[in-house]
Known about the structure:
By secondary structure, this protein is an alpha+beta fold.
Amino acid sequence: MQHARERVLSLTLRWLSWAVVPVVMFLVGQSYLGKLPLVPTLGFGLLVAPVPVLYRARRRIGNLWTARVLVALLFAVAFYNELFRGFLPGSALLNVTVILLAGLLFGVRAARWTLVACVSSVILAGVLFAHGLHFDGLDPLYDPRLPIVWTRYAVVLAFVGGAITAALSYMIDTLESAVSDLISSVQRERTEHAHRETALRVIERHERLDTLAHLAGGMAHDFNNSLMVVMSSAEMIGLHPTANPEIRALAGVILDAAQSSAETIQRTLALGRQSAAARKATPIDELATWLEQALHHVLPPTISLALERHGDALVYIDAARIQQALLNLCINARDAMPEGGTLTIRVETRDVARVPPGWAAHPGSFAVVSVRDTGSGMDAQTRARIFEPFFTTKDDGQGTGLGLPMVRAAVLDSEGFLEVQSSIARGSRFDLYLPRAAPGPDTLDRQACPDVAEDGAATVRA
């Protein structure tokens, strides 16, 4: 039952539980004084006695069955009152109360059926009286043995109960309509607010990336010139014939640091670079094959690799950027499993009817590449920030915080979308949804596919 109806049931049971005892005591006193017959009074007490018990046991038997038993009990009390007291205004009040309570607890349809039942009970009682049923103490002014009395009572009850039922129907329908409109309005407002928040976050993220890209672009020229001087000087020092091994080693360290800085600048530039012109139809199976070969040079022996292929498809992507994105995800998975584990790459196709907000993708058919590990996982706060530039959970010097933003940028430029599932101690899963392309002459340009060197670093063929 709904919360409002549960509240009505609780209040009704509480009120009746408190009212039963004084009412029964009053009727017993009237019977003791000779104003009421003893047997009908005791019968009435037995009928209303279960109400306090019902109030105590409602949590055990449930609200629905409690409401049903209560309506049936009050209906029996009204019929019993008609048999022993005749068709008096008090009996009519009991019938009207049953109709109202049925409508409040079960709705308009229940109120109408209860009205029919009450009128039927009046007719049944009148027929019984007309055929000789008689009890002492009946009011001669409302002699139920006269057909005109119980017929008039039934007609009046039908009109009064019908009017009350109609009014109740209108009130409940109006209230339900108003509540439904209010709930729909609140839901629409929440949905619009969520969409606005999502749009603002996306705009803010794009603004940060654009600012970062412009800043990096302005610095790249001068920084690269400085790096060229550093790198050429380090190479000359390392190749100088008079340099001892210690100096050559230091020159190698300088050269490695300069190359790392150059790679960082290139990654930063890639965050704001659009690559729609480089997209072409690419077999997803060849991407999976390349990734499997590349990971043999990257993964340690403690991590087992499982590749699951469920169908092949052409995807319309920038192959080099998606390969780099997949390699970044696998390297992150490797770092999340320092003591070993399982890295699973799954390739399949899915039909998507709804795209998460914040992506430029459209519903349709996608090839899905899933990267799943059994590593340490992430909590909700970390998961909410993983695509922020320069945010990293790795120790200083072990990560730049640009890997996952590059992954997101590559998927976004491919007009796909990305889903992330992760929890502490249960690993992480990244699902890359890449849009499928119609078969055509475009194939994977292997000359642009990065190779993986023996030391695990990704390089690009010239």
